[in-house]
Specification:
The complex is a heterodimer of chains A (823) and B (472).
Chain A (H helix, E strand, L loop, with lengths): L1 E2 L10 H10 L15 E4 L4 H5 L2 E4 L5 H16 L13 H16 L7 E2 L4 H13 L20 H13 L4 E4 L5 H4 L3 H10 L2 E6 L4 H5 L2 E4 L8 E6 L2 E5 L12 H8 L12 H13 L10 H11 L1 E3 L13 H4 L12 E5 L13 H4 L14 E7 L5 E3 L8 E7 L2 E10 L6 E5 L23 E2 L5 E2 L1 E2 L3 E2 L4 E2 L15 E4 L5 E4 H9 L15 E3 L3 H20 L7 H4 L5 E6 L8 H9 L7 H5 L8 E7 L6 E7 L8 H5 L5 E3 L5 E3 L9 H5 L6 E2 L28 H4 L14 E2 L5 H13 L12 H5 L5 E5 L6 H6 L4 E2 L11 E4 L1 E3 L11
Parallel strand pairs in A: 1-2, 1-4, 2-3, 5-6, 6-7, 11-16, 12-15, 24-35, 25-34
Antiparallel strand pairs in A: 8-9, 9-10, 11-19, 12-13, 12-16, 14-15, 14-20, 14-21, 17-18, 22-23, 25-32, 26-27, 28-29, 30-31, 33-34
Helix pairs in contact in A: 3-4, 3-5
Chain B lengths: L1 H22 L5 H12 L19 H4 L5 H9 L1 H6 L3 H9 L13 H16 L9 H10 L9 H32 L9 H5 L2 H24 L17 H7 L4 H4 L14 H8 L10 H11 L1 E2 L4 E2 L8 H20 L4 H18 L27 H7 L5 H4 L16 H10 L14 H9 L21
Helix pairs in contact in B: 2-7, 14-15, 15-16, 15-17, 16-17
The chains are: A alpha/beta (823), B mainly alpha (472).
């Protein structure tokens, strides 16, 4: 049960949560009943919400009321005092859903958890009370390993700003890349106040708005350039080792502080004073806490090798003695406004700290699939019979509107968002930075000045008084990859005056059912509900049998003996476990020298990502469920692309890989045209600055030199992977460089290749273990176990391309009572 | 008929020249080169135009032209003797070069000195090394071309020329015949068609243009394939490291220094530390004395006189370095020659300049730090090559791709490193199939080997010709 907390996207430590969440979702088909259920109460389609079994729509300002209602429902069942509340949720379904969920939570006492992203102390107090009432502490909630992240108190910060502006502060020191000038609602006031100070120092590793406002900058190395240590959660200590020598003339923040405070001499010994300092600190503070190692050196060496150590902290039992009744008055009041806006941290650049990372800027947002911009999610409503009605008649993605809250105004493109509650819109934070590097500056607009605080001084990430204008303009460079490289067909729409449309898309939008690909009844993605899993599996088995039968009538020669020897690489992707963190996509970009092309190029369908994550909606038109499908080269054994290449630049290896020889490619793009999965990418320009002709180069940030021509940027390139030039096709190679490396290691060690020796970049990055790579000829491999799972299907199996990638159907655990109209 | 007589006579002519040359030992610049390299090059510059320890030798014969030739010969054999005898030119040169006497070479014969002078003049004038007409140069030419016109392409050229003449003659005959038949048949003609008009007919012009395009294409493609191929590339390295001495004479294993070859992609250029394993003890080289080895010490900061590594070497200035290493060079000179004379000082100065120029470059102003060796073998960026795969797994000898490095004084690129060359080897080379359990998964081949129907598995047969074995 979750009130808006995006714990699979950006809330606290999503990677850790994701792996824990996936453990109870990846269920063997005979144990389908044991699957966990996630019910999300929210207004906009969040990353977590898109993975939820049910989404229940409530307005942002109603969250307090909804929590209170759940509290009272639970309280009445467990004998806790209720609180006085009045008012009703604007969505009648939500009222009933709370009652149903309360019943379910009672059944799962001690094994359930209620979360909220609320930044209102009273609301969180109620969440604590609910969890306490359900007996979740000690079960699903453990204080012995509590997270140490994001412990700031908004009130203290605003007090500080008041002192700063009133002139009570003489000097300010900003550490750890803190950037309040940008990401605090009162950033403007801080900037002005800093201007009047004589001493303001920013200890930062990157240019930022705060750094620009400070008198002095003490540049620090990147954390991978220097030693460091971390304590991310209780009892969990890690050492950060430098991976390269510092590139620039920098000094670690700790050493700066020690020097300024006059404590430096004693730690300045040795080649690396920070190393000496950290080691001494560990010896003094942590070595004594452990009993495993007799000598400090032994303890240090082992921790260094493992990267971290777990120390037994004193066990603690926390309980709250909350004055529940007094909380009722402090929860956010209902606004009864026509329109509310929810602000959220986007998956890629978070709160803006990563805005200057072009990989993350060009990673399509999994829900909106927009790159290089923040957008306003606007609702669309099915009129019940023939068409959708759009908010303010904004009938196209990428139209620009003005979002106005009091004196703050930004112009943003809109995206019509399924599952966006009527009467609400949503907009991302983290954009609109003006003083970071060349990639991040000037991308989108900042919403931080629009945030307001509640009575306790806590910043509230929604607003009840937004005004959204009608169509103000159109963003010609609006880049959403949703309609790029689709499996659908394009055609002329006579009713729209002969305009070219995506036929599948049109079917969805006008008929209200089906999905992309639905028109031609192709087997692209599959889903099942856990209580009907057996039927779905039976259905899948029948369909696959039919496909097998069809595929027997083939022109392709039987090459099973050819592939049966040596290795035959394959992959399995579990759609249930995929929570669309997009880490695989970025890992692929990093591993394979996939270039960044910039917004304009993406808007021309020129994005180069080898792996894309397709998004499909299905189910309830008001609040649909989502299937995310990582789609990359399927390494078909009967590859359609290979047959049409006039120069045999793409051909098949004996290990089942669909090979791409860039130097042989002459750029006809026949292969991309013939690929049923649309995963081949063409280098329209010299994105990597790899050849000698300046006119071929791409200049996404309007600089004099192309982005990749910079030697510092080029350090990002993987030396084991060819840098592609203009005019060639490229695509997923299944990380062939890793395959070759793994094979060589086995050969050198004179042993057979073990299952798990080779892991692709996407597999390594996946927090939930949704991706498994392996050798199909190794009969005991994990891969074969997954490929033989009855939930596994092959995308477009009917086309007889003999794909090497198996997808496991998405299984969700629904309780149809939750979203039903009846109680 | 004249052709025929020439063809018969030519081999005799060649044979005569050959015999006449080889019968008498005559001075030759090749012999001179050897003598120069062995005995003169340590003091005299090889380019003959600039001074080193000794004066530039270019045009030395002209400077001595006023005196009998025997004076110059005597001067070369024993210069101090000539100076003492009061020869005016000898005294002039002696004074001009700071009164440092040249090492005497009493063993040089008149022929040796003749050869030497030929080589010096040839190099100075730029005629040596270039095939030129002249009695000496043509000796070599005739010698190597003793196969005569029947070897190589010349035979085809002659046939080709003969056929062209034949076709011209036949064309003319045909034109005449056509004219005659025309007359006989009563067709009106203006006379026999001229040879020129036949040659400029559409058909002939078309054929000529077509063959020019085909030939042009053929040569363009062939030359383009060879672009950027660096076979035989043999740059001078900052240190005259001799593989002949190390790998050949002393039989040091290749992988003692290039230890990356067995475990990584790169064979690696060994760090100077590796040199120091031996050269802490062997401090004077057999070929170049202190001249080359001191470069290693200067790079890494080792003081060979005191046998210690110098503290804070990075922070020392050039003058400090010079003091340390010239002192060492001087010490060695004194050990060899008894005292530090002017020649020794010159040598010291020259060797220091050598160290400085070898260890610094535009991008590396400091003498301290790694030696900037020049990379010889360089594959294109889109090729993946791994030494470990070939050396450790494939058990190939280094010489298979690098040639007999142990016989190379200066290393050169032996193989073309072309894709055809790689592929060919992958076709022909056997995999170490039965020794390595990795290959167990190739069950079919194992069965065939056991059944006796197969004796070997080549790299090709396990997919060694597939694109993504080398390109990804």
């Amino acid at each position: 049960m979750n009130f808006g907390a995006d714990f699979l996207g950006t809330w606290l430590t999503p990677a850790a949560f994701a792996s824990q969440f996936a453990k109870r979702r990846k269920i063997k088909d005979d144990k389908a009943g044991q699957m966990s259920r996630l019910v999300q109460f929210e207004s906009n389609m969040s990353y977590t919400g898109s993975n939820a079994d049910h989404r229940v729509l409530i307005k942002p300002s109603e969250q307090g009321l909804a929590i209170a209602k759940l509290h009272n429902a639970i309280a009445s069942k467990v004998g806790m005092p209720s609180i006085d509340i009045n008012g009703n949720l604007s969505n009648p379904k939500a009222e009933k859903a709370i009652a149903t969920v309360a019943d379910e939570l009672m059944q799962a006492r001690g094994k359930a958890i209620v979360l909220s992203n609320s930044n209102n102390t009273a609301e969180q107090g109620l969440v604590v009370a609910i969890n306490q009432g359900l007996g979740n502490y000690g079960g699903t909630l453990d204080f012995n390993e509590s997270s140490n992240l994001r412990q700031g108190i908004d009130k203290q910060m605003s007090d500080f700003i008041n002192e700063l502006t009133s002139g009570a502060v003489d000097a300010v020191l900003f550490i750890d890349d803190a950037n309040p000038v940008y990401d605090h609602p009162k950033g403007k006031q801080i900037e002005e106040a800093l201007d009047k100070l004589n001493l303001s120092v920013a200890i930062t590793s990157m240019p930022s708005e705060t750094q620009a406002a400070c008198k002095f900058v003490a540049p620090t190395p990147h954390y991978l350039e220097s030693w460091g240590d971390v304590n991310p959660s209780r009892g969990h200590y890690g050492i950060v080792q430098p991976t390269i020598n510092p590139l620039f003339d920098t000094r670690p923040a700790v050493i700066s502080l020690l020097t300024w405070s006059g404590q430096a001499p004693e730690v300045m010994m040795g080649d690396d004073p920070l190393y000496t300092f950290i080691k001494n600190r560990w010896e003094a503070a942590l070595f004594i806490k452990q009993h495993k190692y007799a000598t400090f050196q032994n303890f240090w060496d082992n921790t260094l090798q493992d990267g971290f150590t777990m120390l037994d902290e004193e066990a603690r039992e926390l309980s709250y003695a909350l004055d529940i009744t007094s909380l009722a008055g402090k929860i956010n009041r209902l606004a009864n406004s026509e329109l509310e806006v929810q602000f959220y941290e986007p998956l890629g650049i978070g709160g803006g700290a990563y805005a200057n990372n072009p990989w993350l800027q060009e990673m399509p947002d999994p829900v909106t699939r927009v790159v290089w911009d923040n957008v306003l999610h606007i609702p669309l409503k099915w009129n019940g019979s023939s068409r959708f009605e759009y908010f303010k008649d904004l009938d196209e993605d990428g139209l620009l509107v003005d979002l106005v809250i009091e004196e703050q105004k930004i112009r943003v493109p809109v995206v019509r968002q399924f599952g966006q509650m009527e009467g609400t819109v949503a907009c991302a934070l983290g954009y609109g930075r003006w003083a970071t590097g060349k990639a991040g500056s000037g991308v989108g607009s900042s919403c931080y000045p629009m945030l307001k605080s509640d009575d306790d001084g806590n910043i509230q990430y929604f607003s009840t008084m937004p005004v959204v204008s009608g169509k103000a303009d159109k963003d010609k460079r609006f880049a959403s990859v949703q309609h790029h490289h689709t499996l659908g067909v394009t055609g002329k729409d006579e009713s729209a005056g002969g305009a070219t449309i995506n036929v599948d898309e049109k079917t969805v939008m006008t008929l209200g059912y089906g999905v992309q690909g639905g028109l031609t009844k192709r087997s692209i993605f599959r889903h099942a509900a856990s209580h009907e899993l057996a039927e779905s599996i039976e259905h899948l088995k029948e369909e696959r049998a039919e496909f097998q039968h069809l595929n027997e009538q083939t022109l392709y020669p039987d090459r099973s003996e050819f592939y049966g020897m040596g290795h035959h690489w394959g992959m399995s992707v579990d759609l249930t476990a995929c929570i669309v963190c997009a880490a695989c996509q970025v890992a692929c970009v990093a591993e394979n020298n996939v270039p960044i092309v910039g917004k304009t190029e993406v808007s021309r369908h020129h994005e180069m990502t080898w792996m894309r994550i397709d998004r499909y909606y299905y189910g309830d038109v008001e609040s649909p469920n989502v299937v995310y499908q990582p789609m990359m080269c399927q390494h078909c054994d009967n590859a359609p692309c290979e047959n049409v290449c006039p120069v045999a630049a793409t051909n098949h290896s004996s290990e089942g890989l669909n090979q791409m020889a860039y130097n042989r490619c002459v750029g006809t793009r026949y292969c991309a045209n013939n690929c049923p999965y649309k995963v081949r990418r063409f280098n329209w320009l010299d994105y990597n600055a790899a050849d000698l002709f300046p006119s071929n180069e791409n200049d996404p940030f309007n600089e004099n030199t192309p982005y990749y021509a910079d030697n510092l940027t080029r350090m990002v390139l993987n030396p084991d992977v060819t840098v592609r030039s203009r005019g060639v096709i490229e695509k997923c190679s299944m990380c062939v460089q890793r395959i070759q490396e793994g094979k060589l290691t086995a050969k050198q060690e004179k042993r057979m290749l073990q299952d798990g020796d080779i892991r692709t970049a996407c597999q390594t990055a996946c927090p939930t273990g949704a991706i498994t790579f392996g050798d199909m000829n190794d009969h005991g491999s994990k891969l074969n176990e997954l490929l033989n799972d009855p939930k596994t299907y092959v995308a477009l199996e009917e086309t007889n391309v003999r794909s090497s990638i198996g997808y496991m159907m998405k299984v969700i655990n629904r309780n149809e009572k939750i979203n039903s109209e009846e109680a | 008929m004249i052709y025929k007589s020439l063809l018969i006579r030519l081999p005799y002519l060649i044979l005569c020249i050959f015999l006449s040359v080889s019968a008498i030992a005559q001075p030759s610049p090749d012999a001179g080169k050897t003598i120069f390299r062995n005995q003169c090059a340590s003091c005299h510059n090889r380019n003959m135009t600039s001074d080193m320890t000794g004066p530039a030798l270019g045009a030395v014969s002209e400077r001595w032209a006023a005196y009998p030739e025997s004076d110059l010969y005597a001067w070369i054999r024993n210069s101090s003797a000539l100076v003492e005898s009061g020869h005016p030119r000898a005294i002039e040169v002696y004074n001009q070069y700071n009164k440092i006497a040249m090492t005497p070479f009493p063993n040089l014969t008149d022929d040796d000195i003749g050869s030497l002078l030929l080589y010096i003049d040839g190099t100075f004038n730029g005629t040596y090394g270039v095939p030129v007409a002249g009695p000496v140069a043509s000796t070599g030419q005739t010698d190597s071309g003793s196969g005569g016109i029947f070897s190589g392409n010349s035979f085809y050229y002659i046939i080709f020329g003969f056929l062209i003449i034949l076709s011209l003659v036949l064309t003319r005959v045909l034109n005449k015949l056509k004219y005659l038949t025309d007359i006989q048949e009563g067709v009106e003609t203006e006379g026999p068609r001229s040879l020129w008009s036949s040659l400029t007919s559409k058909g002939i012009v078309g054929i000529v243009i077509f063959s020019l395009i085909v030939l042009g294409g053929y040569f363009t493609v062939n030359n383009a394939i060879g672009l950027n191929r660096m076979q035989e590339y043999q740059p001078d390295q900052p240190i005259k490291f001799s593989h002949t001495t190390h790998a050949g004479l002393n039989k040091i294993d290749c992988q003692y220094c290039h230890d990356g070859a067995r475990r990584s992609k790169h064979s690696i250029i060994p760090a100077t530390n590796t040199c120091m394993n031996c050269h802490k003890a062997i401090k004077v080289g057999s070929k170049f004395g202190t001249a080359e080895l001191t470069k290693i010490y200067a790079s890494i900061g080792y003081d060979p006189t005191k046998d210690v590594y110098i503290e804070n070497y990075d922070q020392l200035g050039e003058d400090d370095l010079k003091k340390v290493y010239t002192a060492w060079i001087a010490n060695q000179y004194v050990l060899d020659n008894g005292k530090l004379d002017r020649k020794g000082e010159r040598l010291m100065e020259d060797q220091w300049e050598g160290i400085k120029s070898s260890l610094t470059s535009e991008t590396k102003p400091q003498i301290q730090g790694p030696i900037e060796w020049i990379r010889i073998h360089n594959l294109p960026d889109h090729v993946y090559f791994n030494h470990a795969q070939h050396v450790t797994v494939g058990k190939l000898a280094c010489q298979q791709c690098h040639g007999k490095v142990e016989e190379m004084e200066v290393v050169k690129q032996y193989a073309p490193l072309s894709m055809g060359w790689c592929i060919n080897c992958h076709r022909e080379t056997d995999v170490k199939f039965t020794d390595n359990p990795y290959y167990t998964s190739y069950a079919k081949y194992h069965e065939e080997i056991q059944a006796g129907t197969r004796s070997r598995v080549t790299v090709e047969e396990i997919g060694g010709l597939e694109c993504q074995k080398c390109h990804y």
